[in-house]
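Page 37, continued from 36.
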């Protein structure tokens, strides 16, 4: 069923959080049978608008109509009764409960309490089967706690789908998924669309937006600035609508630096890693590519001493013990983790403290740094990364996701590291901020640091890297250098197309 009458209409939406006007007269209109993108820079109000519709944020003012009928949505429960379901990057699953019970949570017959195991199993069996390609051999009884983050996200999506929503909000719900998992989610979203539902899709991945969305609403600073037909708009135009005119990031195919090797790794193994060799020079940006989940994050965590691994690591010719993040940090190794939700911040503490903490730990044993210096250092990072904040004293939990990620990034930059490990550092970061981060990554390298960057976006690897190691099942499968680094070659190497024809094999790129 495809209908042109708006299933969802939000207008005159205002929301203020303390000093931040998150939405001002924002609006959105989406038809049934439509995937509607909700786009905008970090902090532009996308999540807030979605949450107003999902009943989890109470607006200061709003008019909401569903299929032409004015409605009041005072709570998530009220939204659920209206057929509205939402999935976020932050999960709402109960870790100690089974996959099956998590799936039925929220769609159980309320008055009757919990479903019996048998009834629950019957209820979720078709959904588990549908999701199997993205879940692997996950079973009804497995505890959610034991699942990989991507699998948990899939369960969260399954939970929303079981409610058979007529409006489904996916708010960065694909950010932690592998490509094959994203493909399944898209398949399901298209089925929902066929059935006449409206899907509101929030993502910073332009390729996902152009692939999936029919129309899109674009927010800037809490205001709806445009509504557009996605197939009729080029990605460049979408970017321009989102951020105004930003300076495009051009790939600079400079020569690979030929200074001494700064980071030398031999036979790094453990967990998913099956013996990785790597030599990287100061000034070099080395990317980790390949299908996701091939050991890229594990490699970075092992180099940071955060997981148990064996092998030899040297920085500037001196052996580094893979003992702990503290040891790594003392040797000038910094890690910017990808999962900004759970790693790398003290959510309740002020932004200033979050920015300063790693550099304080590195420089002062006593840990007391004059708050004037801390403040000056923090402010310099806020300026350099254009982090959108109210005040340095606000808790980091008050920031939008992308801005929080910039704080994590800034925290490590302040330590002036010699080896910078970046684990998908721009996940959930808007295109404008991405460009800023790329510039900073480049300037770090120009100052002599070695940068190792894992990215889930091939485009990012093409944009910033001097060399890309394509990982496959915990080992380096291929190496692409300079002009060889194209999205096409990366995909080919990741999928092992044209075996043996993917640039120098691992190990041959050594000094
Ligand atoms: N609970 C809150 N308390 C205080 N301020 C908040 C809260 N939630 C959001 N904000 C602020 O409201 C503004 C809009 O945030 P929102 O999360 O809606 O943006 P967004 O477009 O989804 O951002 P991102 O792309 O970074 O996720 C931001 O400035 C943010 O800091």
């Amino acid at each position: 069923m495809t209908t042109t009458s708006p299933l969802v209409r939000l207008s005159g939406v205002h929301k203020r959080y303390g000093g931040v006007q998150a939405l001002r007269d924002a609006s959105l209109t989406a038809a049934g049978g439509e995937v509607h993108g909700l786009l905008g820079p970090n902090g532009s109000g996308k999540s807030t608008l979605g949450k107003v519709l999902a009943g989890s944020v109470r607006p200061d003012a709003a008019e909401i109509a569903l299929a032409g009928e004015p409605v009041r949505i005072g709570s998530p429960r009220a939204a659920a009764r209206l057929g509205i379901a939402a999935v976020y990057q932050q999960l709402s699953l109960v870790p100690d409960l089974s996959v099956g019970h998590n799936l039925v949570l929220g769609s159980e017959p309320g008055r009757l309490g919990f479903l019996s195991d048998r009834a629950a199993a019957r209820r979720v069996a078709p959904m588990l089967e549908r999701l199997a390609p993205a879940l692997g051999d996950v079973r009804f009884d497995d505890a959610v706690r034991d699942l990989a983050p991507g699998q948990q996200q899939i369960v969260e999506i399954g939970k929303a789908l079981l409610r058979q929503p007529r409006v489904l909000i996916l708010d960065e719900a694909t950010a932690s998924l592998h490509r094959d998992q994203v493909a399944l989610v898209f398949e399901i979203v298209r089925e929902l669309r066929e059935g006449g539902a409206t899907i509101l899709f929030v993502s910073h991945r332009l390729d996902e937006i152009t692939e999936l969305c029919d129309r899109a609403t674009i927010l800037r600073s809490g205001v709806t600035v445009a509504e557009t037909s996605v197939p009729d708009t080029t990605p460049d135009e979408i970017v321009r609508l989102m951020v105004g005119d930003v300076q495009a990031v051009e790939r600079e195919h400079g020569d690979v630096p030929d200074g001494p090797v700064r980071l030398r790794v031999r036979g790094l193994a453990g967990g998913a890693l099956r013996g990785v060799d790597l030599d990287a020079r100061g000034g070099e940006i080395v990317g980790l590519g390949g299908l996701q989940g091939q050991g890229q994050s594990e490699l970075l965590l092992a180099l940071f001493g955060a997981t148990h691994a064996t092998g030899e690591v040297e920085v500037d010719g001196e052996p580094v013990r893979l003992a702990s993040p503290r040891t790594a940090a003392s040797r000038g190794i910094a890690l910017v983790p990808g999962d900004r939700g759970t790693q790398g911040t003290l959510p309740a503490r002020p932004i200033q403290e979050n920015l300063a903490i790693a550099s304080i730990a590195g420089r002062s044993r006593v840990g007391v740094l004059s708050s004037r210096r801390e403040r000056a250092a923090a402010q310099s990072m806020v300026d350099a990364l254009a982090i959108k904040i109210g005040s340095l004293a606000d808790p980091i939990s008050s920031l939008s996701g992308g801005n929080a990620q910039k704080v994590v990034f800034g925290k490590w930059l302040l330590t002036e590291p010699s080896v910078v490990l970046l684990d998908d550092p721009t996940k959930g970061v808007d295109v404008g901020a991405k460009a800023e981060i790329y510039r900073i990554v480049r300037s770090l390298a120009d100052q002599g640091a070695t940068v190792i960057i894992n990215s889930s976006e091939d485009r990012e690897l093409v944009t910033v890297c001097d060399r890309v190691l394509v990982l496959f099942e915990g080992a380096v499968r291929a190496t692409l250098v300079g002009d060889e680094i194209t999205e096409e070659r990366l995909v080919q190497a990741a999928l092992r197309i044209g075996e043996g024809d993917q640039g120098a094999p691992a190990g041959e790129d050594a000094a």
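Confidence is low (pLDDT under 50) at residues 362-368, 498-511. Flag for discussion at group meeting. The longest strand covers residues 6-17.
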